[in-house]
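Researcher: Here's a chain I'd like modeled. Treat it as a single chain, no partners, no ligands.
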Amino acid sequence: MADLLFYLFAAITLISALAMVLLPNAVNGAMCMIVSFLGTAALFVLLDAYFLAILQVLVYAGAVMVLFLFIIMLLNVDEEAPRAKPAKLSIFAALSGFTILSVLVVSLFNNPSALPEPPVIEVAENPLGPSAANGIPFTTSAKSFGYSLFTKYMLPFQVTGFLLLAAMVGVIVVSKRMTETTVKTEQSD
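Model: Modeled as a single isolated chain. Structure tokens:
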């Protein structure tokens, strides 16, 4: 049953991702991207990574896609924008990409041992139990993620927060300059 669900959700994810790239309408493409994110979240659920599945739905399918949809709607993207005919270089790139993909798939099915297998690494015996590594017990719970985030990965977490803060300040400064320049330009006219 799990295999059937995996194939179903993987197919939903791949088809919606392909539709997102190929659809000419930006709003329909964004909706297909939401379906792709939800399919990925379902795959996380099949892996028993419930926390990641919830984050996938809340952060990506929720917040990021709402932001994308607002931007698309604010830019007033024309639904019937004229599409240019594909250039010869684009057609050549598409054909060569499809050829390379076909050769890789055929060679994989002809020689399934061509894919490298990852080595099996033995886990050292830990006094906290067999499921603990480096003193941090590993589970799929939010407590385990939070504990490792604020102990082992504290420095990268703080650097990421600082970079996001610097990006927000930069956006505010740039948008304030643009607003002041626009106001001065309109006043001079």
